[in-house]
Design a protein that fits this description.
Length: 728
């Protein structure tokens, strides 16, 4: 037996799961003109080797190791028949008889940080192999842990014992790999990682495509998707559309609090018709990737490749996206590469070292959030994130990724005091590694998925956020206009009597409106943490609050940029958003005072449909050619007026009176003569307004005014917005 026994140098390492190459010991191996098969079957009372058409009893050599010498050196196909106490024997294929599931090209691309389908080779993937003894189906496991002494797959299938399925190291890649026959979809697992200091830590799979519902932390082997998409026409059409010059009215939605108990399936039945009825073009979901703490709203991700089990299975999320597409609704999802939580079972100190995070806390931690920051300069980390963006677009047919907290990535001193950040080699505060990562992500997504949007939540004046990467830009499709949002809400929160002193807060946005491609966001961030709901931020009594919100939306939808409203804002929800409860649907009941909210709701619906039907409001969002001031300097009357020009030459005039007084006979210059039709009036009685009589059509007069040859005298109700469209 000496020549078939496990070498002494390997014996202890196998027992302690610190062996980098268990496949060199287990399985079949030639020994001169003979050969041997070795295995470890913990708790077995008998192991037989089924080979060459016969059953050979394997010899127990201690510590659950079993060996069987063979008289030839020909590599056979074989099986084990294993008997455990009190159980019927079971026949299994040997995990240590299979070649690595990652080929040389895969390993090369991983090392280079360029594997664009990383999820197909890392993580858990169900596979089948045809052998001479029949087909073998199981699951391949692969994980990046370059500083580990040993790694094993653990789960119920091995009593969570890391000694049963130790993995092999694939050399300098830092990847550990094994194929385990018989592991089926639905199997729960983790990786047992033995660190350099001898500690064992059990980690969820960073590449897991499915998880158990939190607070459970285990990964789940996902079944290959059987979902049959029906959105081919949508996907083909999307590639030919420039979304930045198309209508885009986004409904931002947190699935768990849209309605209590909501999930991917119920949203198909309830959210989809709601979006259609109310004229939204897109929905933007707050993060749907797995996260342990619901109070993070999904922004502290632990399962980057797994839709959260809170709301359903991956295929149920696919079905939701497919249904949205079938109803003409684009799907954007929040994507969070800016940071990750410190949970010990997740990415943090994954192999006992700072692996995904930067090792220096001055770059590797975001203290405000209690999270780690990705090491964007490391190839494998960058690959993990870029491939993740591609994964969501490929596997779930997403139409856009909204990238959270971009500013925190761009600046090394973001939310840090002196001494708490580490400059670059050139002494600057810019995180050039993060810049490169963002450029690579955007360029790669747009190359692989034409028509897919990438949207930056970026709150600074970083230049070229939406400029193309070949022009040194970051390459995003759009950027949230945080400046416009802050200035606008600050202005609208003022009592009208004080607004004349803050007129520039409304006009300033047009100074830079075309420097980037913008989304105008009234997002979840503006209705939490003591800020109050938009309703609460409007001054005055309920009548004035309602009028203020209606005017705010009339102004917003006429301003250059795409539109975004967080759920509940579309009717003026009366309280702050609370992720643990539904939005205030009762605001729309028939009770006293609720008519204001029903009116706002109807207005937003009408704004959406009028906006979508009129290219003047979106087709030249990103060029000064699409905008013309008619009146910008009338601070005394709290009044703005401008023309939006469509690429088809059709104009729409927006007149915005944000004072507390009605202006009678207000003369306004017009860009063209003719008849102008009133298409939106936020003061209309159907919206809960005063219902002042305004003519449906006004005619331009040959009276020069403010540099225009044509003008008109208008009645402008207090706290209201009117849109006029030139009749052709």
């Amino acid at each position: 037996m000496n020549n078939v026994a496990i070498p002494e140098a390997d014996y202890g390492r196998l027992l302690s799961c610190t062996h980098h190459a268990p496949h060199d010991i287990y399985g079949w191996h030639p020994l001169g003109e003979r050969s041997v098969v070795r295995t470890r079957q913990i708790g077995a009372e008998r192991v037989e080797l089924l080979v060459h058409g016969e059953a050979v009893d394997m010899e127990a050599v201690g510590d659950d190791f079993w060996v069987a010498p063979l008289e030839d050196d020909l590599s056979p196909d074989y099986r084990f028949r294993i008997t455990y106490p009190g159980l019927e024997p079971k026949i299994v294929a040997d995990p240590y008889h299979f070649l690595p599931t990652l080929g040389e090209l895969d390993q090369h691309l991983i090392s280079e940080g360029r594997h664009e389908r990383l999820w197909e080779v890392l993580g858990a993937n169900v596979r089948s192999y045809t052998t001479s003894l029949g087909e073998v189906t199981g699951t391949s496991f692969a994980v990046w842990a370059p500083n580990a002494q040993g790694v094993a797959v653990i789960g119920d299938f091995c009593g969570w014992n890391p000694s049963q399925y130790p993995m092999r190291s694939l050399g300098s890649t830092g990847v550990w790999e094994i194929f385990i026959p018989g592991i089926e979809p639905g199997t729960q697992y983790k990786f047992a990682i033995h660190t350099a200091d001898g500690t064992r830590i059990d980690k969820a799979d960073p590449m897991a495509k499915q998880t158990l519902c939190p607070p459970e932390t285990v990964s789940v082997v996902a079944a290959p998707s059987t979902f049959e998409w029906s959105d081919e026409e949508w996907m083909q059409a999307r590639a030919g559309v420039d979304a930045t010059n198309a209508a885009m009215s986004i409904y931002e939605c947190h699935i768990g609090s849209w309605k209590e108990g909501a999930n991917f399936t119920t949203m198909r039945e309830e959210l989809v018709p709601y979006l259609v009825d109310n004229g939204f073009t897109h929905v933007e979901f707050l993060p749907v990737a797995e996260h342990p703490f619901g109070g993070s709203w999904g922004y502290q991700v632990t399962g980057y490749y797994a839709p959260t089990a809170r709301w359903g299975t991956p295929d149920e999320f696919r079905a939701l996206v497919d249904t949205l597409h079938a109803n003409g609704i684009g799907v954007i999802v929040d994507w969070v590469p800016a940071h990750f939580p410190k949970d010990a079972w997740a990415l943090a100190r994954f192999d006992g070292t700072a692996l995904y995070e930067h090792p220096d806390w001055r770059r590797g931690e975001q203290k405000d959030w209690g999270t780690y920051v990705f090491n964007f300069g490391r190839n494998e980390v960058r690959n993990f994130l870029v491939a993740n963006a591609l994964y969501w677009c490929e596997e779930f047919h997403l139409d856009g990724l909204r990238v959270d907290a971009v500013a925190s990535m761009l600046y090394l001193d973001y939310s840090r005091e002196p001494g708490e950040w580490l400059p670059n080699a050139d002494g600057s505060r810019e995180n050039w590694e993060a810049v490169q990562f963002l450029q690579e992500t955007n360029a790669t997504v747009h190359r692989n998925f034409p028509g897919v949007l990438t949207i930056a939540e970026e709150s600074t004046a970083w230049p070229g956020v939406t400029a193309q990467t070949d022009a040194d830009g970051l390459g995003f499709s759009c950027k949230w206009n945080m400046g416009w949002m802050n200035d606008t809400l600050e202005y609208f929160s003022l009592d009208p009597v004080h607004r004349s002193y803050h007129h520039n807060e409304l006009t300033f946005s047009l100074v830079y409106a075309f420097s980037e491609k913008y989304v105008l966001p009234f997002s979840h961030d503006e209705v939490v943490h003591g800020k109050g709901s938009l309703w609460q931020r409007m001054p005055g009594d309920d009548w004035n609050k309602a009028a203020g919100l209606r005017a705010l939306y009339g102004y917003m939808f006429s301003h250059p940029g795409k539109q975004l409203l967080f759920m509940g804002c579309e009717w003026g929800q009366t309280t702050e958003w609370d992720e643990a409860h539904s939005v205030n649907w009762d605001n729309l009941d028939n009770g006293w005072g609720h008519e204001y909210h029903r009116g706002i709701h109807r207005l937003v619906r009408d704004l959406n449909f009028v906006y979508r039907d009129n290219p003047a409001l979106f087709s030249q969002d990103n060029t000064p050619m699409g905008f013309q001031w008619l009146k910008s300097d009338d601070a005394a009357h709290n009044l703005l007026a401008y023309t939006r020009w469509g690429a088809d030459g059709q104009p729409i005039v927006a007149v915005i009176n944000l004072s507390g007084s009605t202006h009678q006979g207000y003369r306004l210059g017009l860009p063209q003569g003719g008849e102008w039709e009133l298409i939106i009036n936020t003061d209309d009685a159907v919206y809960g307004g005063a219902g002042n009589h305004l003519p449906d059509v006004v005619s331009a007069e040959a009276v020069s005014w403010d540099g225009f040859d044509q003008s008109v005298a208008l009645t402008l109700p207090a706290m209201s917005v009117q849109w006029y469209k030139l009749r052709r």
